[in-house]
Design goal:
Oligomer: single chain
Structural class: mainly beta
Helix content: under 10%
Order of helices and strands: HEEEEEEEEEEEEEEEEEEEEEE
Distance between the termini: 48 Å
């Protein structure tokens, strides 16, 4: 009898502890989901429940309100960034009440919440990543092309950092004819609602431009111009140190200082489709009449199980090359990827 009572008490405590950690999602059609909110990103809310093997994905505009027990990294369209919990507003069903970990409670419209992610103390809980690859084979010329891309992102309340790599091999008759490697890192440290300090290091190797390695170190200041549950736009300006080493110059390198401006625009309001474009313009301050332009365009179409198919255009232009290499270099590719 005593053993049965003890077992029942343990089960009750376990049930209550699980229930306290569960989140509640109220939908506009009257349905209610109870589970664990994984993330709100790109206008889609992901919820893990006990009664489904796969996470539920819900378009954010179909959500009326949330009630959470655990802390989240919360980003609002008004550029607020903080840690806290959320609950419905009993006086206005279009609003949501936010309880920051530090500070007084806030009121906002549900659609003004543009990003949520569980705020955990463990480092790996703040990391997300994706990897994709593409292969093309041409029988007539015995040509094979392999492309591999990947990125890792880390997000804390005021800090965002990314690592990325893009590699392209063009093989003819089992011999690598051309190669293009681009990898680097960038970070943003937010010090107000929308302003941030940025730093970046970009490394490029391009056989098309006889470029053995171009190293670009950037620092500057940026601002979130627009952000809502359908799109965002950011812009930045600053200075860069550019170091270049060419294949035909016997390992000699040249350095220069540049000013730069950039703008990035991302659209994710259409179901399962994400479009991203970024333009960077560099004006050389130590070499007369030299300017560079970097342009990228990405499209991704979400598939089940966190897979996606994507396409990418990368274009580089340099008005004054230091060798006989081409002034332009571009890559167009399609790929299959997975995000985790």
């Amino acid at each position: 009898m005593t053993r049965s009572l003890l077992l029942g008490l343990l089960l009750l405590i376990s049930f209550l502890s699980v229930g306290q950690n569960q989140d509640t999602v109220y939908l506009k059609n009257g349905h209610v989901l109870i589970g664990e909110i994984k993330i709100l990103e790109n206008g889609v809310l992901k919820v893990e429940t006990e009664y489904s093997e796969n996470d539920f994905t819900i378009e954010w505009e179909k959500v009326k309100s949330l009630k959470t027990q655990t802390n989240f990294v919360i980003i609002l369209s008004q550029k607020h960034r903080f840690n806290g919990t959320l609950s419905p507003d009993p006086n206005n069903e279009e609003n949501i009440i936010l309880y920051p970990k530090e500070g007084s409670k806030m009121f906002a419209k549900t659609l003004d919440v543009v990003y949520l992610k569980s705020f955990e103390d463990k480092f790996w809980d703040r990391v997300s990543a994706n990897v994709d690859a593409g292969v093309s084979i041409t029988k007539a010329s015995d040509t094979k092309q392999l492309s591999i891309s990947g990125s890792v992102s880390y997000l804390y309340t005021q800090l965002q950092s990314d690592l990325y790599i893009n590699t392209l091999y063009n093989v003819v008759q089992d011999t690598i004819v051309t190669e293009r490697d681009n990898y680097g890192t960038n970070w943003k440290l937010f010090f107000t609602r929308s302003w941030y300090v940025l730093g970046a290091a970009d490394f490029l190797k391009s056989d098309e431009q006889n470029l053995d390695l171009r190293t670009t170190i950037q620092t500057g200041i940026g601002r979130n111009i627009l952000r809502n549950y359908k799109m965002y736009m950011v812009t930045a300006v600053g200075v860069a140190l550019n170091s270049e080493q060419y294949t035909i110059n016997d390992g000699n390198s040249s350095q220069s200082i540049e000013s730069f401006g950039e703008i990035e625009y991302k659209i994710y309001g259409h179901k399962d489709i994400t479009l991203t474009t970024k333009v960077q313009f560099f004006n050389n301050l130590t070499e007369t009449e030299r300017r560079r332009l970097n342009f990228t365009f990405d499209v991704k179409f979400d598939l089940p199980m966190d897979f996606y198919i994507g396409g990418n255009l990368t274009y580089n232009y340099d008005t004054k090359m230091n060798t006989e290499g081409s002034n332009t270099d571009y890559v167009i590719k399609s790929s299959l990827g997975w995000k985790f």
